[in-house]
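Q: What changes when coproporphyrinogen I is included in the input?
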Amino acid sequence: MTVVSKKSILSSARGERPWRYPLWFLRQAGRYLPEYRALRAEHSFLELCSNPRLAAEVTLQPLKRFDLDGAIIFSDILVIPHMLGQELSFGPGEGPQLSPAIRDRSALRRLNPPKMTGLLASTAAAIRLVRPQLADHQTMIGFAGAPATVACYMIEGQGSSSFSAVKELLYTDPGCFSELLDLIMEATFSYLCLQVEAGAEIVMLFDSWAGQFSTRDYKALVAPATQTLLKRLKEAQIPVIFYPGQGCHTYATAGEFGAEVLAIDWRFSLSSAAQFLQKSSLLPTLQGNLDPLLLSFGDESQVRAAVRALMDEARTLSLPGHIFNVGHGLTPTTRIEALNWAIAEIRTSSV
Ligand code: 1CP
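A: The predicted holo structure follows.
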């Protein structure tokens, strides 16, 4: 019990007062770190994910440099499609590629049944290596993609700006689209349970592309699988940080999903997100939401002022808790000194 209460991220997720301001960064391990780039020069991204010793090393890199309260396991949301049988590759300078793309029922039928092997087992093994190396105050964070976001990549075969293949399947065969989401949901639930068995103490669910759907389609065809997943995680007593993407309608319903923490994109202020949420439910703990590019291009006074303004804003909202973070992943142009300014500003502030 004493050990748990030292973990500011977990205290804040439970709506308890943490002993200090909880702080971590989305994509805190990644290309902005020279030590990550050095490992990446020797190994492909998939090698890093599939080798538990390397994945653990990358996970711990930012914790060696910065005073952070959480470690997110190094992996990717696309390990689920890989396990289901799609070939996954990350070409140089390109986004992820998955093949064959799942465009119809026959492709859906050819997918594997969910099995907790391969990259999923490697991620769990990496969590087992990281957890004992964390300090008492640091929380082990697992993660996965929400069903619709993972389905977007599976259907398109890559990232997209219009998601027209996704919309084509959604409108021509909504039953097939829903079956795919249910399959991903089942696999993701087992995978997150596996991460928790291995030592994850909270999990983050990324629904990065949820805002691409119309309000009506979102409610009828997208939200149910996410809602079922979150309900099952609650029954399994697994605390969740849910990132509902960037759409207003995803915020309007996200409060009802019962996640302990909602991660707010930087495009919304915490106050406007809170307004949406209060329409449907009590406010949960919020995470976020500094613009990550401020840490690439802002000077020290701009960074410190924005960090302070965010903490002040959170205070005025009487939230059950606020976990400091960026509103989306750190980019390769993030400057280490800017992270140090942000962290120094947060550490001079009481909760
Ligand atoms: O080194 C490299 O070239 C690989 C770049 C990279 C990294 C560092 C990818 C490819 N994935 C990751 C790790 C990753 N991905 C983490 C690690 C843990 C940490 O935060 O430190 C996490 C949480 C993710 C999650 C992820 N992957 C999301 C959800 C969050 C978000 O950004 O909205 C998504 C959409 C992905 C897909 C993906 N994987 C990689 C890239 C470049 C992308 C995005 C592609 C696109 O824009 O469509």
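Observations recorded in class: Residues 285 and 321 are 4 Å apart (CA to CA).
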